[in-house]
């Protein structure tokens, strides 16, 4: 049964709230949102909203790089084939072909906009990561690609676009009327709740890693866009597919920094506590097998050795090269007394990338009129059941550009109306018992890690669904006054959707692994699970 959620999280009345009118509203300022912004016609008014500082996004933390066929010896067919193989028979082949063919042009554009990718003798240096059969990953500042790409994109957005930018502004809900998106209800501490009426809205809110106890994602990644779109009645797809990054730094007290796949690409080996290199026992591609296989092998080896982690070993490689190629990771590890060139680095899997999301077509249009989506909040069919490394920044670029162009063209055709539609959401009475938000949040993160992590099974998922349903009944019935409450409500909603979809998919495919259904069932399950809020009245 579809998850029961209220249509709007907070009370409002059009006579008691400020109104703001724009042509195009973009929610999210990561790679997808800013790429969309660059496609909006300068004659249109454009507003970009981010819930934290502009610089705080998954995009900013991306390490390994962006995949694209750059080397003359590489082939589009090879990048397509690698993407399809990783996606475990669930990718949309047309989408894969489109994205792969557009990749080199997007990389060239980033360079033209001021991104400095790593080069040698004037040529782009190309890295290789798990699942890729060729060196085709452009990277910057060694292992800080996202930081460099976002620096250039933010600078261009601020200086060249003439866009209004509202940082530290939380989007609570999309506004819908007559089956169409009309903008969003947003909040910031300076002006409180505000209606932003937009002719076209683009949702680029990123991922949801924060619903898991172990994650590589920053604090902003709470799945807001997924939950907002679900409440608004847009269709979501593939919510059971959550990618776990195999190698996340595991040191008590440290942040869960991602140890990039590129370290394995450069020859890093995974060893267990006894020093045994175990990956060749699990897959002939060893450390360069796709992420789901490596994550699964690490969890199995942790169980076999009864250890809380395994190690990444770079000590057989040239020490100077290792420290220079991965300066960010070297710095973080050094703070905990680990020299990455000589010491084994303790790692284990963590939630990394949300494959499921708001379903979009090749133009980035969602099932809801006047609503577009791009990047990690969306589900385009590129990744299938498992994302190939370094294909997600690329997806943000390609679909950001498509959604931006589509929304821009549609907004240019629509006349100005400057009219608010009669939307109202009444207040519910204050609850008598206060709710300890961080208690529910931490409990949810632990539950998701246990029941909907790398390995899943029917009874645990059923128990998780019941528990989340119980928490939803009392947490979603309340109306909170600030982001901490709304984030929790969004996290509960997204967790409920993941668990429901994971229960339904009674097979193992890509990143979705069921102990009780270990085989892939193409006859029954080579299809997408779509979810839409029941009784959605827009
Ligand atoms: C540590 C790490 C390393 C990675 N390395 C790579 C890599 O090497 N290559 C690769 O291809 N991918 C990598 N990824 C994945 C990739 O970074 C993301 O998938 C991609 O950046 C997502 O971009 P996005 O624009 O969709 O979302 P994000 O970059 O996450 O941006 C989301 C935006 O939405 C805003 N937002 C969210 N909720 C709200 C709200 N309620 N109201 C207002 N604004 C909101 C945020 O403030 C933010 O501006 C990595 C991810 C992580 C975490």
Task: Please name the defining characteristics of this protein.
single chain, alpha/beta, four-stranded mixed β-sheet, globular, binds flavin-adenine dinucleotide
Question: How does this structure look, described?
Answer:
The protein is an alpha/beta fold. Helices cover about 35% and strands about 20% of the residues. It contains 16 helices and 22 strands. The strands form six sheets. Strands 1, 2, 8, 9, 10, 11 and 18 form a seven-stranded mixed β-sheet that branches. The protein has a four-stranded mixed β-sheet with strand order 19-17-12-22, covered by helices on one side. A hairpin with a 3-residue loop joins strand 10 (about 180-190) and strand 11 (about 190-205). The radius of gyration is 22 Å and the shape is globular. Flavin-adenine dinucleotide binds next to helix 1, helix 2, helix 5, strand 9 and helix 6. The site of flavin-adenine dinucleotide has 44 residues, from helix 1, helix 2, helix 5, strand 9 and helix 6.
Topology:
Blueprint: E1 19-27, H1 31-37, E2 46-49, H2 58-61, E3 66-67, H3 76-86, H4 93-112, E4 119-120, E5 123-124, E6 126-127, E7 137-138, H5 145-160, E8 164-166, E9 170-177, E10 180-188, E11 192-203, H6 224-232, E12 236-237, E13 242-249, H7 262-265, E14 269-271, H8 279-282, H9 291-305, E15 310-313, H10 319-325, H11 327-335, E16 345-354, E17 357-359, E18 371-373, E19 378-379, H12 392-413, H13 437-451, E20 455-456, H14 458-475, H15 483-504, E21 513-514, H16 522-525, E22 530-531
Parallel strand pairs: 1-2, 1-11, 2-8, 11-18, 17-19, 20-21
Antiparallel strand pairs: 3-7, 4-5, 6-7, 9-10, 10-11, 12-17, 12-22, 13-16, 14-15, 15-16
Helix pairs in contact: 1-5, 1-12, 3-4, 4-12, 6-15, 13-14, 13-15, 14-15
The structure holds flavin-adenine dinucleotide.
């Amino acid at each position: 049964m579809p998850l029961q959620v209220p249509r709007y999280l907070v009370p409002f009345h059009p006579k008691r709230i400020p109104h703001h009118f724009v042509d195009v509203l973009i929610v999210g300022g990561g790679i997808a949102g800013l790429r969309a912004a660059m496609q909006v016609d300068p004659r249109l008014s454009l507003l970009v909203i981010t819930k934290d500082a502009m610089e705080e996004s998954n995009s900013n933390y991306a390490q390994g790089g962006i995949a694209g066929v750059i080397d003359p010896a590489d082939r589009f067919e090879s990048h397509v084939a690698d993407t399809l193989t990783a996606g475990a028979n669930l990718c949309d082949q047309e989408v894969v072909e489109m994205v792969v063919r557009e990749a080199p042009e997007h990389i060239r554009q980033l360079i033209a906009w001021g991104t400095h990718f790593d080069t040698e003798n004037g040529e782009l240096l190309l890295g290789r990561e798990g699942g890729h059969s060729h060196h085709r990953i452009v990277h910057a500042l060694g292992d800080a690609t996202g930081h460099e790409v976002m620096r250039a994109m933010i600078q261009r957005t601020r200086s060249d676009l003439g866009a209004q930018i509202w940082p530290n502004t939380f989007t609570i809900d999309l506004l819908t009327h007559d089956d169409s998106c009309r903008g969003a209800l947003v909040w910031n501490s300076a002006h409180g709740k505000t209606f932003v009426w937009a002719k076209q809205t683009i949702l680029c809110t990123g991922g949801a890693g924060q619903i898991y106890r172990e994650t590589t994602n920053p604090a902003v990644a709470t799945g807001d866009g997924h939950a907002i779109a679900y409440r608004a009645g847009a269709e979501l797809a593939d919510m059971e597919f959550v990618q776990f990054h195999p190698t996340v730094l595991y040191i008590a007290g440290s942040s869960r920094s991602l140890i990039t796949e590129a370290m394995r690409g450069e020859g890093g080996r995974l060893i267990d506590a006894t020093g045994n290199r175990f990956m060749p026992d699990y897959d002939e591609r060893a450390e360069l097998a796709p992420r789901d296989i490596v994550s699964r092998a690490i969890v199995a080896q942790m169980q076999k050795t009864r250890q809380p982690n395994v190690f990444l070993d770079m000590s057989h490689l040239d020490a100077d090269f290792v420290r220079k190629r991965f300066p960010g990771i070297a710095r973080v590890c050094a703070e905990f007394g680990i020299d990455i060139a000589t010491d084994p680095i303790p790692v284990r899997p963590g939630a990394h990338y949300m494959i499921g999301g708001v379903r979009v077509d090749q133009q980035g249009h969602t099932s809801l009129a006047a609503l577009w989506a791009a990047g990690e909040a969306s589900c385009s069919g590129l990744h299938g059941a498992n994302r190939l490394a370094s294909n997600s920044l690329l997806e943000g670029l390609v679909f950001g550009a498509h959604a931006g162009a589509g929304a821009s063209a549609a907004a240019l055709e629509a006349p100005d109306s400057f009219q608010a539609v009669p939307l109202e959401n009444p207040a519910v009475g204050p609850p008598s018992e206060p709710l300890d938000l961080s208690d529910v949040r931490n409990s949810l993160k632990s539950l998701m890690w246990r029941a909907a992590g790398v390995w899943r099974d029917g009874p645990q998922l059923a128990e998780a669904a019941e528990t989340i349903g119980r928490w939803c009944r009392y947490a979603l019935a309340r109306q909170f006054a600030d982001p901490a409450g709304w984030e929790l409500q969004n996290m509960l909603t997204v967790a409920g959707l993941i668990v429901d979809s994971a229960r339904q998919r009674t097979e193992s495919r890509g990143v979705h692994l069921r102990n009780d259904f270990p085989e892939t069932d193409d006859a029954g399950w080579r299809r997408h699970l779509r979810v839409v809020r029941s009784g959605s009245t827009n």
